[in-house]
Write a structure and sequence with these properties.
This protein has about 130 residues and is an all-alpha fold. Helix content is about 85%, strand content about 0%. It has one domain (about 5-120). It starts with a helix and ends in a 5-residue tail after the last helix.
């Protein structure tokens, strides 16, 4: 079994375990955990999209590259600042640790899951159909 599959499974089990614990014991932080799990998965997709877009920059003119990074930073930096100042710094410190852990676990899980799914879809395309 690949190390990435093991990391994906561990991240998934940590995330599901924390969510289950939050909902079973009816903790106040359960909605924060769920929201940050989703944000983490969304950030993983965003990171994969940006990495894929950067790979496609080969052969493009320098103006296209500058505009791409200007737009990326123009949206990314203000959002990052807002998220840090208005969400994380104003959040109750009792919820902060678990929420950030769920954010990271969601990113790790979705990054590896996307690679796993892509590999499975590509291998399914290569196999001859029995029709």
């Amino acid at each position: 079994m690949k190390k990435s599959y093991i990391a994906m499974i561990i991240a998934f089990l940590i995330g599901v375990g924390m969510l289950a614990k939050g909902f079973i014991f009816n903790e106040d932080s359960k909605m924060f955990l769920l929201i940050f799990w989703g944000i983490g998965m969304g950030l993983a997709f965003l990171r994969l999209f940006v990495n894929n877009s950067i790979k496609k920059m080969k052969g493009k003119s320098w103006t296209v590259k500058v505009v791409f990074f200007a737009v990326l930073l123009g949206f990314g930096l203000p959002f990052q600042s807002w998220f840090r100042n208005e969400v994380l710094f104003k959040m109750d410190s009792a919820y902060l640790g678990g929420s950030v852990l769920m954010l990271v676990v969601g990113m790790v899980f979705m990054t590896f899951f996307t690679g796993f799914a892509k590999e499975k879809f590509q291998s399914a395309k290569l196999e001859p159909s029995n029709s």
